[in-house]
Design brief:
This protein has 276 residues and is an all-alpha fold. 71% of the residues lie in helices and 3% in strands. It folds into two domains: 140 residues, no CATH class; 114 residues, Serine Threonine Protein Phosphatase 5, Tetratricopeptide repeat. Strands 1-2 form a two-stranded antiparallel ribbon. Helix 6 packs antiparallel against helix 7 and helix 9 packs antiparallel against helix 10. The longest helix has 27 residues.
Length: 276
Amino acid sequence: MTLSHAQGDCMRIGNRWRRRRQRSERRWRARPVVASAVVAAGLTTTGEGRRPSSDPRLIAEMQLSQDLDAAIAAAEGGDERRADDLLESAVQRAQRAGAHAGVLAALDVRATLAQRRGDAAEAESLAKYALAFALCRLGLPRDHPEVLSWLLKLARLYSEQRRHEEAESAFQRCEALCRPHALPSLLPAAHRALAVLWVSVLFWHGYFLVGRQRFSEAAAKLEESYRAALCAPAASTVPEQRLVILFHLADALHRLGRYTDAIRSADCCGPYHVLP
């Protein structure tokens, strides 16, 4: 595995984390009794803002944010060991202080780094821990995008280790939990992350089925993934992913001997094309 792949994944996770943190900071600044200078100092206020007091949880969350940025920078620079050490200690400190915001993002980076260096056991352990953390500590429902993302990561880890039955079961659970919320008529624009996740669940399940030489099932999954990618609001967020889906769809159709369909799929790379 190349370093550029690890860097790309870390940049993706880092960008997602930074957007999440910016939204959190905007909500926090909107609180009328908290001045921006107080927030920057890691302090909260009591009463009407006259008595600032240290908030260990807020301080831990801010420290985790800084450590996450430093770890992502280290990983992007090729120092993955330092990135992992920073994240491990940061997560431990945050959990001791009861600061849960950002913990899943830090675990995501750690699992990605473990996966990239070929430590499947560590990546799987982190994914299972993150799932338990999201469900039990954060109290997220099983069909929450954060939970489904970790279940999908676990399914892909099983697939890479050729643990086919476990992978198939995890992919099927992902689909069963995600499908009821992924229909365009039921999906509010605010739930864009779930729409993109639905595209990914179908794609990776189809990719897994290609590896199992179940080409007919794979083609059905990949075509459904492509159609989902064209539906709003997913269409505005995954333009480059459509090309990848079509490439693998063409491959599955070719292996089925459906050469005309394969050629049509390979040619359908326009951003607004819909397979008839």
